[in-house]
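The step that takes the researchers longest sounds almost clerical: writing a folded protein down as plain text. The outcome of that step, for a single protein, is printed below.
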Amino acid sequence: MIEISGLQKSFGSKRVLNGLNMEVKPGEVYGFLGENGAGKSTTMNIVTGLLEKDGGEVRINGKDLSVMEEHPIGYLPESPEFFDYMTCRQYFAYIAAACSYEGDIRKRTEEVIRLIGLENAIDRKIKGFSRGMKQRIGIGCALYSGKDILILDEPTSALDPQGRAEVMQIILQLKEMGKTVILSTHILSDVERVADRVGILHNGVLQLEGNIAELLRANAGHEIMLETENLPADLIEKIAKSPFAISCNLTQHGGKVEIAEDFEEGNRALFRILAENKILVSSYQVVRPTLEQIYLKVVGAHAAAKGWN
């Protein structure tokens, strides 16, 4: 769907993109991650045709972006602005004219408003809308003309938990519709919830790209958290001295055990010790990594390699 190879961009003497390679597949939600200044906005502006590249190639649906007559991407910028004096219906009629929509404007406007969940506010002036409602209008603008690819830049920025949940639900609906969505956000728990794959950008280069589920499995830790009742000191010592335990931080009420490389065998051995000694275990949980931990590991490793603190 979108293939980026060797993408380069500088502003004066500052190199922002340094040979970026990435791929977004059809029908997926792609989490595009990176710290401020990593080059995410520059990349999105190039892909949407708002900024000229210095080098490299961008292909969309197999065609070079530079020769495409009609741009196939809908775009929600980080801080969209609206004509507050218009109603929601009036604003989408304006968007229809701006994108030269050739279908039934009234029907399309009502379809989009249903999708973004603003049916009850269709004839209210945007001036009185909450931040979350305005973000939903922005998403509606991005998809109004029916583009199959959407780029959403910080769609949940500054929203409360309810507003974030509503926007995430819209993204899941877009995915069900077969849309391809590039989602750029600093809220990594949102990405983990809706994205299929992620790319982590640092210093203008993609440092990590892959399927989220596979990345989480590959970076899984070897720790087990326990909650127990009256775990005796001698049994804690036995666990700590067992070959499977790299470290043991237990009290009579439980704690954490770090398991050696053969995790499955160590997990079974620990469970066997607890069962044989008839220890009542109220919680036994394998510690799972989060996308945030993987992100910090990747970015932190490359920052350390550069000598950053």
Observations:
- The chain has two domains: 2-217, 221-286.
- The mean pLDDT is 90.
